[in-house]
Amino acid sequence: MGGNPAMRAGLALVVVVVAVVVGDVGAALPRFAEAPEYRNGEGCPAAVAGAGVCDPGLVHIAMTLDAHYLRGSMAAIYSLLKHASCPESIFFHFLAAADGGEGGGGGVGELRTAVAASFPSLRFEIYPFRADAVTGLISASVRAALEAPLNYARNYLADLLPKCVPRAIYLDSDVLAVDDVRRLWETRLPAAAVVAAPEYCHANFSRYFTENFWSDPQLGDRVFAGRRRAPCYFNTGVMVIDLRRWRVGNYRRRIEVWMELQKEKRIYELGSLPPFLLVFAGEVEAVDHRWNQHGLGGDNVLGSCRPLHKGPVSLMHWSGKGKPWDRLDAGKPCPLDHTWKSYDLYIAEAITAATTSQLPPSAVQDSEGEGRHTAAAHKGKMENRGSKFLFICGTIQIDSLGFGLENPHKVEAEDRDLSTD
């Protein structure tokens, strides 16, 4: 084909982007670009032939997957792979509504197609979650979104995932990793612990339960008596869970008992968080706060902007009402939402074959050598290994905060209660 190399690269890119845009991944699902492919670096565990999901060298990450939050999930997956030292050793376990969830169009098959299209080499499985397993236990919350049955799917991880999976990192869909998730995976869980998570003991723990709870002589402080430590708030959007101990202790049933009591007497106002606190507060193995810089979505009512709180950053979490993709689309982003946008694979409907073909070659990054990236030695600042697709979607630079693994970015802010479900 004639023309200069830049022109040929640009034309080739247009073909790929058009293919992604018009690809049939379900009418109700958003469209996403294909992410760069990352390879394991030196020192990663060798795969055990034929072991599949039971390979002992795998890092297991569990997330929910649905049409409404799919844009957040895609960005989260991309960030986890990009910053992982051994991306090919990560196995994703997705929990999706068996009936497609509210609004339809997000069935398991469609979601599988969408994920595979953006991450062709991703190792993952999708587990259908039946809403009727929990619907009768859900109580009204301060925000309707917190009442969705899929929010409670994490209670059933140990029932859904293969028995050979020893532990899993559970992550909400509104997170971004800016560090190697294997570091979180290697969190030590002593024999007495089932769950590890960042704790926030400065938060007013009593506010998570009603006056009815604290005034009841059979409840209140008595519930937490005899635990390893004083009960503290922890956010359930980032947890390391020992699945074997969970099964032995029948913790799903312990959580359900509290949800049943909530139906009888109102003992809390939030959604799926309080039952976890009732079962695990005071027994959680503490994890460094860097692994859940949460509350970036504001509170559960206004969803206003919030800065990072004090300390290093390994994972950012937009818990709360305000989601970065919604604020970006509304033209009212918070400062940190621009960082999230750097991982956004979403292709707006306005980007079509016509608009893409009009881009000059100078506006397109050369595609040669960008299809695969090796997560070799992570030294100092992470490489800027952005995707050509992201550039077309309006993203200029991936590592906009310039996070490095050895010298994490620190942002000083007031130490405040970031309590959100």
UniProtKB/TrEMBL annotation:
<feature type="signal peptide">
    <location>
        <begin position="1"/>
        <end position="27"/>
    </location>
</feature>
<feature type="region of interest" description="Disordered">
    <location>
        <begin position="358"/>
        <end position="380"/>
    </location>
</feature>
<dbReference type="GO" id="GO:0005794">
    <property type="term" value="C:Golgi apparatus"/>
</dbReference>
<dbReference type="InterPro" id="IPR050748">
    <property type="entry name" value="Glycosyltrans_8_dom-fam"/>
</dbReference>
<dbReference type="InterPro" id="IPR002495">
    <property type="entry name" value="Glyco_trans_8"/>
</dbReference>
<comment type="pathway">
    <text>Glycan metabolism; pectin biosynthesis.</text>
</comment>
<dbReference type="Pfam" id="PF01501">
    <property type="entry name" value="Glyco_transf_8"/>
</dbReference>
<protein>
    <recommendedName>
        <fullName>Hexosyltransferase</fullName>
        <ecNumber>2.4.1.-</ecNumber>
    </recommendedName>
</protein>
<keyword id="KW-0732">Signal</keyword>
<keyword id="KW-0328">Glycosyltransferase</keyword>
<keyword id="KW-0808">Transferase</keyword>
<comment type="similarity">
    <text>Belongs to the glycosyltransferase 8 family.</text>
</comment>
<dbReference type="GO" id="GO:0016757">
    <property type="term" value="F:glycosyltransferase activity"/>
</dbReference>
<dbReference type="InterPro" id="IPR029044">
    <property type="entry name" value="Nucleotide-diphossugar_trans"/>
</dbReference>
